[in-house]
Structure prediction request, 347 residues.
Amino acid sequence: MNTDWQAFLDSQGGRIGDQGAAHFDSAPAEPACAVVDLSHLGLIAVSGPEAQDFLQGQLSNDLRELTETHTQLSSHCSPKGRMLANFRVLRFDERFLLILPRAQLETLLKRLRMFLLRAKATIDDASDALVCMGLVGDCANASLTHAFGSLPEAPNAMVRAGDTALIRIPDPSPRALLIGPAASARAAWEAACAAGAVPANPDLWALRDIRAGIPTVLPETIDSFVPQMANMQLIDGVSFHKGCYTGQEVVARMQYLGKLKRRMYVAQATLDADAEPPLPGTLLSAASSTSEQAPGRVVDARATGPGQWEMLVVAEISAAEDGELRLGDSGALLKLSPPPYGFPAEN
Prediction:
């Protein structure tokens, strides 16, 4: 974590949790307007004259569509087309930044460097050079507009103020990601709190991702999902016209020649007090499933009250439509719903 940012969070009463982000003991669970430390996210910087060409051959999305005002989701896949990591990508001056959980950062760094070969590009860990923080709600709009001149309106849009970026995160309710030096993040945090925002914990950000249907590949789910299984094609995370990249043949074949048998749902469950929490990677079960594999697994989950959980799950479409999907060991019945962006009619 950036040392100046950590000192500021300490002054605000934050304590650094297991994942590297600040937690606030008195934070409300779901405030209407909040600031969130996102130091559990890391940054990979790729720069150099051949940085775009190199990444174009490794990522599932088309970097030619990135601009100074538009970011995108993307992923890095295995040769079998399964995601090893997914992340947000933005063009930041002369370099590209990939934003992903720090728990995934070293794995992706090693993978990308393995493919670098003689490309004229450098790949660096920029996690401590810049700060990631989230803004939930709209109470800080006036101060953000003053700082940036305007607000990003469309999902994935970005505005800049010098070396600081503000990105609109796809969400039915206002949500933005700020990336910049510690001084800029501190100014945004203080201005938001003066306007009525309260410090919240990173679980709020993860819960909002779950409700928005935005998946995160975590160490427990590496190599588990082809991008379409996690709805990446529905949230502008896959390009089907960009050409070759690692795993592209499998991803394209599923899109044009195969039939999607699994997709990602928003789910709710009520668990007994002594039940194991539905951690990422937890397998699902269904009496109607005829597959030799489990009919699905948890992508991510967060508690919203005693025994109450909300989660993203990738599941067999047929088992989901039968309405009998359950969490593996607990046997808790899942209540499934489409993500806010819905499903294509043909699926």
Notes: The chain has eight helices and 19 strands.
